[in-house]
Amino acid sequence: MTSQGRTSFRQRLYLITPPVADAAHFAVVLEPALGSGDVAAVLLRLAEGGERTLIERVKAITAAVQPREIALVVDGHADIVARAGADGAHLTGIATFAASLALLKPDRIAGAGGLRSRHDAMLAGETGADYVMFGDPDRHGRRLDFDALKECLTWWVELFEVPCVAYAASKDEVPPLSRTGADFIALGDWIWSQPEGAAEAVAAANAIMSEAVR
């Protein structure tokens, strides 16, 4: 999961799963969604479970994702990434990111989210983040003011080479976030609850994104 370069820009999607307990069942829902848009990565959120159970869930989702040349990134759990065969981990908060980096580098993706200041984002970028995410909600559902989010993304794109991910909390957020020039647009829980199904929701978001960046 890397930037395409600012001179040859290709914006792509980043799918975020709900907390997954039944990986086999969710894989059936996920696979059509992966084929309906230009998906670069999947962030796998895991429901609580023992270590062996978590590893087996990751392996099941990895089997659905990686054959499509899409990266599978686990939300937290940096300690099981290598054993489960995932491509990396997404780490929330600069302290967690820094503490987990040695478990992932140099072979795995280390993504940084939960960055509540520009200083935290710069620190993550300077210490080895493969991408930084902006706009993701905290555990209480709070997130950066939307205008401030767009300003932050534009600032990052203009000044830094490390790829950035813009978290879209709804379909309506996809066009303005795409226009910031963010490398990836993350689609959260909303895509899995759309009446038309996740695959159609991803296809629609992909079309909106493509139109927005023309």
Molecular structure report:
With 214 residues, the protein is α/β, with parallel strands linked by helices. The protein has a single domain (12-212), classed as TIM Barrel (Alpha-Beta Barrel). The chain has helices at residues 23-34, 51-65, 81-84, 94-104, 118-126, 146-159, 174-178, 198-212; strands at 12-16, 39-44, 71-75, 88-92, 109-113, 131-134, 164-168, 184-187. α6 (146-159) links the parallel β6 and β7. α1 packs parallel to α2 (51-65) and α1 (23-34) packs parallel to α8. The model has no long low-confidence stretch (mean pLDDT 94).
List keywords for this structure.
alpha/beta, TIM Barrel
Question: What is the count of helical runs?
Answer: 8
The span between the termini is 22 Å
Shape: globular
Strand order of the largest sheet: 1-2-3-4-5-6-7-8
* Sheet of most strands: 8 strands, parallel, barrel
Task: Assign the CATH class.
Answer: Alpha Beta
Report the structural category: alpha/beta
Poorly predicted ranges: none
Q: Write down how many β-strands occur, each being a DSSP E stretch of 2 or more residues.
A: 8
Helix content: 25-40%
CATH topology: the name is TIM Barrel
Radius of gyration, Cα only, in angstroms? 16 Å
The residue-averaged pLDDT reads 94
Assigned CATH superfamily: Aldolase class I
Instruction: Please trace the helix and strand order, writing H or E for each element.
Output: EHEHEHEHEHEHEHEH
Q: How many domains, in number, for the residues?
A: 1
What's the CATH architecture name?
Alpha-Beta Barrel
Strand residues, percent: 15-25%
